[in-house]
Design goal:
Belongs to the 4-hydroxybenzoyl-CoA thioesterase family. This protein is an alpha+beta fold. It has a single domain (about 5-150), classed as Hotdog Thioesterase (Thiol Ester Dehydrase, Chain A). The chain contains three helices and five strands, in the order αβαββββα. Strands 1-3-4-5-2 form a five-stranded antiparallel β-sheet.
């Protein structure tokens, strides 16, 4: 069964809803004047885990690839405050994979708390690096295949993901 994308469903996210995880140690300068993570830090965490996964699992490299993923839209919904000092557990899943776009979702959890602090993500559109036009053949196979395990819980299987 697919995980819902409405606010009530996102508020109920658990670590197990995300097939891939990375840890992040908060820093003093991550806090704002209210003693919780400043909103832009969440965007950095979202961008970092997605690109980390692509680099580690798909061999993604801006220097060597003729195709690139551009961000078409972003979002972040906040359900609690994470803060310094502490460790965060950042989880990643793929919500949807089309011919030339991928919608990612990231859940952010503070160590010692089961409540999701934020759920955010972005839609990435794969284009030709030189022309910025969408790829005729869609998302490169080198990207699609390593992302398949992240479709868990999306309701989309490998056939509908158009491998």
């Amino acid at each position: 069964m697919a995980l819902g994308l409405d606010l009530a469903a996102k508020r109920q996210r658990q670590r197990s809803d995300y097939p891939y995880h990375e840890d992040y140690r908060t820093r003093w300068n991550d806090n704002d004047m209210f003693h919780h993570l400043n909103n832009p830090v969440y965007g950095v965490l979202i961008d970092s885990i997605i690109n980390s996964y692509l680099i580690q699992q798909a061999g993604y490299s801006m220097a060597n690839w003729k195709q690139i993923g551009l961000v078409g839209s972003t979002y972040c919904d906040y359900f609690g405050a994470a803060q310094y000092p502490g460790m965060l557990d950042v989880g990643l899943r793929v919500v949807r994979m089309g011919k030339s776009s991928i919608m990612y979702e990231v859940g952010i959890f503070q160590e010692g708390s089961e409540q999701v602090k934020a759920v955010g993500g972005f839609t990435q559109i794969w284009v030709d690096r030189a022309s910025s036009k969408t790829l005729k053949d869609g998302i490169p196979k080198e990207v699609k295949e390593p992302l398949q395990p992240l479709l868990e819980g999306s309701g989309q299987d490998s056939k509908t993901a158009k491998l």
